[in-house]
Specification:
By secondary structure, this protein is of the alpha/beta class. The protein folds into 2 domains: about 120 residues, Rossmann fold (3-Layer(aba) Sandwich); about 140 residues, Glucose Oxidase, domain 1 (3-Layer(bba) Sandwich), CATH 3.50.30.60. About 30% of the residues lie in helices and about 25% in strands. The protein has 8 helices and 14 strands. The protein has an 8-stranded mixed beta sheet with strand order 6-14-13-8-9-10-11-7, sandwiched between helices. It has a 6-stranded mixed beta sheet with strand order 2-1-3-4-5-12, sandwiched between helices. Helix 1 links the parallel strand 1 and strand 2. Helix 7 packs parallel to helix 8. The model has no long low-confidence stretch (mean pLDDT about 95).
Length: about 280
């Protein structure tokens, strides 16, 4: 592996020593020779990983470092606090890759949209749930810009067709939280992917309505629905009913989100979906 230096960040919820140890062990096992992080990464302020000032400084330091890849340790809450003050000019000049999901969704989309920097919706590296080999496989394909193909089943097809376009998306709650801000996700002419974790079904549905009223489904080319973990036993019924009005290509139950395995999604890269052959691909220029 050519990328052997990484930087750990905690931009959201506070992390434990166990989270840090898990992250370091995983990365060493994956061949990383240098793992950087700030001495104050274990800080706590309320439910956050230290003050807003600390977390902003950490992101800017990560993008200034010699690391090639920046990994979020865990998600949680609070990443939205940082959006106005992180150094986008610095980030735009950097060739670093940011990896994370959940609360990190709002960072990934904001950074990608404002700078074009590479951002990958992939597993938080310090999570306690064991990371599947398939997760690692697709994460490093995304990092290395190696095309990959995912198969799905006929039962996963909601609306059929063949499409291609740039892929964006992430956690539903965080996409909803971005609405009305300068960091609002742009879904026009995009393939959108969505996932959620540990939220009541009615709350998921309410945020989907919020996204609909904001026009976020009006001009999408297609939709990939990932996993909705711990969102109620009737979540599929809620989602199927909500999206019944959409005529674009839709596939569901894909391995994207808080589940394992979790397929990495590089924001802004080309995605091709063909329901005739039951495959979707991530392609790179």
């Amino acid at each position: 592996m050519e990328n052997k230096k990484c930087f750990l960040i905690a931009p959201s919820g506070y992390i434990t020593q166990n989270n840090l140890d898990i992250a370091k062990k995983r990365l060493k096992n994956l061949g990383f020779e240098k793992i950087f992080y700030r001495e104050d990464i274990l800080s706590r302020h309320f439910d956050y990983a230290g003050s807003k000032k600390r977390r902003i400084a950490e992101i800017n330091e990560a993008y200034s470092s010699e690391a090639e890849i920046i990994f979020s340790v865990i998600g949680g809450q609070g990443a939205i606090h940082l959006l106005e003050e992180i150094d986008y000019d610095l980030i735009s000049k950097s060739k670093k890759i940011l990896v994370g999901l959940s609360d990190i969704t709002i960072l990934l989309n904001s950074i990608y949209q404002k700078t074009g920097a590479r951002c990958i919706h992939g597993s938080n590296i310090g999570k306690e749930l064991a990371i599947n080999e398939k997760t690692i496989k697709y994460l490093f394909k995304a990092i290395r810009k190696e095309p990959y193909e995912i198969s799905f089943k006929q039962k996963d097809v909601v609306n059929s067709g063949k499409i291609e376009g740039e892929i964006v998306g992430g956690n539903i709650e965080l996409l909803g939280r971005s609405l009305g801000t300068q960091n609002e996700i742009n879904t026009d002419n995009k393939i959108l992917f969505l996932e959620e974790f540990d939220m009541k079904s009615w709350r998921v549905l309410d945020i989907l309505w919020q996204l609909k009223f904001a026009g976020k489904f009006d001009k999408i080319k297609g939709l990939i629905l990932g996993k909705f973990i711990n969102c109620g036993e009737n979540i599929d019924d809620y989602i199927n009913e909500f999206f019944s009005y959409l005529k674009v290509l839709i596939i569901k139950n894909q391995e994207i989100g808080h589940n394992e395995p979790n397929i990495a999604i590089p924001l802004g890269e080309k995605c091709v979906i063909d329901t005739k052959i039951f495959k979707w691909n991530i392609l790179f220029d």
